[in-house]
């Protein structure tokens, strides 16, 4: 039987995970995992000041995830929120393939996304 993790094991420095994925018709990407703060902040971008999911903010959610997770070889983000408008105008089959890979890598389930969509105003 393995030992239970202790406080120090839980609070050790962040070890970000990276993965390279091939997206048909676009190319090879390097993606990174999210910290709990990054994921919570990302999910909160779909909500208004009252905590309700806002349709107008939900539109950019996939593009925001791409911005957060696509990195260069050193692990630095290569996109910014200024790129969201351009990302929104890319082929949805291609962006969805990238988002699917990111969601799997970051532990964001389809149910998580459906829950956000279901709670739209």
Label the structural class: alpha+beta
Helix content: 40-55%
Instruction: Name the average pLDDT.
Output: 90
Radius of gyration: 16 Å
The number of E-state strands comes to 3
- Strands in their spatial order, largest beta sheet: 1-2-3
The unreliable regions are: none
Give the terminus-to-terminus CA distance. 48 Å
Number of helices: 7
Question: Given the C-alpha coordinates, what overall shape results?
Answer: globular
The topology string of helices and strands comes to: HEEHHHEHHH
Give the biggest beta sheet. 3 strands, antiparallel
User: Per DSSP, what share of the residues sits in E-state strands of 2 or more residues?
Assistant: 5-15%
Characteristic terms for this protein:
single chain; three-stranded antiparallel sheet; 12% strand
Task: Quickly describe the structure.
Helix content is about 45%, strand content about 10%.
Task: Describe the protein's architecture and organization.
With 121 residues, the chain is of the alpha+beta class. The protein has 7 helices and 3 strands. It has a 3-stranded antiparallel β-sheet. The radius of gyration is 16 Å and the shape is globular. The N and C termini lie far apart (48 Å). The relative contact order is 0.17.
Give the SSE map.
Elements: H1 7-10, E1 18-23, E2 27-32, H2 36-44, H3 55-58, H4 61-69, E3 70-71, H5 84-88, H6 92-106, H7 110-118
Antiparallel strand pairs: 1-2, 2-3
Helix pairs in contact: 4-6
């Amino acid at each position: 039987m393995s030992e239970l993790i202790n406080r120090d094991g839980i609070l050790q420095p962040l070890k970000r995970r990276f993965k390279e994925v091939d997206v048909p018709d676009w190319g090879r990407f390097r993606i990174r995992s999210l910290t709990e703060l990054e994921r919570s902040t990302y999910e909160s971008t779909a909500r208004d000041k009252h905590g309700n999911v806002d349709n107008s903010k939900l539109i950019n959610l996939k593009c925001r995830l791409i911005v957060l997770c696509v990195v260069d070889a050193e692990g630095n983000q290569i996109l910014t929120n200024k790129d969201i408008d351009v990302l929104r105008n890319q082929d949805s089959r291609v962006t969805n393939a990238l988002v699917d890979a990111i969601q799997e890598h970051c532990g964001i389930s389809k149910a998580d996304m459906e829950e956000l969509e279901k709670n739209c105003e």
